[in-house]
Amino acid sequence: MKKTVLVALATLLLISCAPKKEALTVSGLAPSHFKDTCGGLPVALYVLKNASGMEVCVTNFGGRIVSIAVPDRTGAMRDVVLGFDNIRDYFPENNDSNFGAVIGRYGNRINQGRITIDGETYQLPQNNYGHCLHGGPDGWHYRVFEVLEADKNHVKLALESPDGDAGFPGTVKATVTYTLTADNALDIAYEATTDAPTVINMTNHSYFNLSGDPDNHTILDDELTIYASGYTPVDDTFMTTGEIAPVEGTPFDFRQPKLIGDDIEADDQQLRNGHGYDHNWVLDTGGDITKVAAELYCPATGIDMKVYTVEPGLQVYVGNFLNGSVRGKKGVAYQIRTAICMETQHYPDSPNKPQWPSVVLRPGDTYRSHTIYTFGLK
Asked: Is 217 a catalytic residue?
């Protein structure tokens, strides 16, 4: 009897001393895989949850959304954005990616990387067909943001971009706040100030696949609606021409729900220029965030996502350049058109198109942008 008791006690001691297995997030992430440093600054994973079970995981490296877990029509949780399951894969030396990132100072393209403000011209990096794309090769998507606030419902991140950063004038102090609401919405609020005239156009670059299964499901059979009567055509370097063209009678008419794949291979010069859809739509919502700007629906899971924004434009990119060379979460190779980006924004190259809404930010003013992605079933 005494021997049995001793064995039992020893077993309990061994169990109590054994390392505890790390609790994973709903989306299957190990938070320890995101605890690291970059440039001597700490990075980590911040997990937002609500009472209905939805979860959003964010890292302060690039202010990136790493995962969004929402229930499908059966109640199973689906991670509906692409990304990596460890922080090292986000570092630029390992992967050139903007999965889930905050884009700044200027989302999208600036023609030949040149801007003129108050008669002075500034040269920016030329990292895409001679143009400046997403703030250049060392844009904000590769910066470590300071964590100002964090709890189970929201995280507020901050970044200071010095004067001359990537050639942009003025020291800019920017924040982005991610809030997960009780009704399954991800609310993204941006703010920025400057000490000298500059341009700014912040957005988020999440790649959505509402099936939660990019290994087996492209987005071509998903249903897209964009409440926009016009779009901005591009040349064969993806640069806007300055025209706002009607969508009527073109493959770009998504004013009524339409499968993404219905017209993507149509004989259309704009589709050839963009290698598919990679264009800015001119929204009909007039900056009213209470109006739906766009909607994405996945028949396979029943998951429906609506986009609301104060921005005048929406860049829709359907993963035309994904080619299987990048392996993301769970080792999945991300193939062509396995995701769609829906980036709320001012129009591409607005600094050089005075006929379009201005993106100039001046000292004493505050840049504000607001976008909401809501998730439900239908």
From this structure: no
